[in-house]
Model the fold of this input.
Amino acid sequence: MEARITGHTVLTGLLGSPVAHSISPMMHNESFRRLGLDYAYLAFNVGTENLKTAVEGLKVLGIRGFNLTMPDKNLMAEYCDHLSPAAEIIGAVNTVVNENGVLTGHTTDGIGYMQAAKDAGFDLTGKTMTLLGGGGAATAICVQAALDGLKEIHVFNIKDPFFPRLQSLVERINERTGCKVTLDNLADKAALKSAVENSHILTNGTSVGMSPNTDGCLIEDMSLFRPDLIVSDVIYNPEETKLLRLAREHGCRTFNGLYMLLYQGAAAFKLWTGQDMPVDVIKEKYFTR
Done:
């Protein structure tokens, strides 16, 4: 096979720890190849202790941009010169664009979720969501959903040490968007029941139910599932979590987090190259269920 790397090849990549399992290098490099772009995407095992040094080095090397996964997303926000509106509200970054040494941080996870919802046939504009969880994926979804025009979001999280920080985030979303966001204790079953009954979509933004602990499910009351309720899960391993299976068995329409991963990558690809990722090709090659 003819060597593709040249003296002009533009570098992109992924920082995090661990990263060896990531599908991102395959989807981005295949997209570059398909579009004839002289770019390359590599994965770098970099934790928070070495993140600043790595970022400075990549700036010197002229990297075009990079993704971040755990545990680097929050710390990276401090090293950016500018932040997108969503990244500023969240205080976390999963995509960085380098313009001549000036780093702009974005968060594309929420964009990925909203596009995955559209891909599944659901327009959530003006709708109400119940969102389980307050971690990275959940907060990214919450902020982007608010920015994209959801009317109301009910967030439920365990009363852990991060709960006050989540309250501050909710206040920022309410101040900066037209969406009404409320935060409740996940243990408050009455509040959860009321929220789901008044929501168009229920989304699990936690890792509960993820392989290998596939018996986990945050919804215990089966009466919450009704045929007109959409149920989604950020988890894609297993493809159908216990939550999605129970919802489907009760007549709900469902979708998992697989295409959220695809579309967050596509959003980053567009930021770096200015071109659309060939998502149909990438979906067929790497995301077939």
Notes: The radius of gyration is 19 Å. The CA atoms of residues 208 and 256 lie 13 Å apart. The chain has a mean pLDDT of 95.
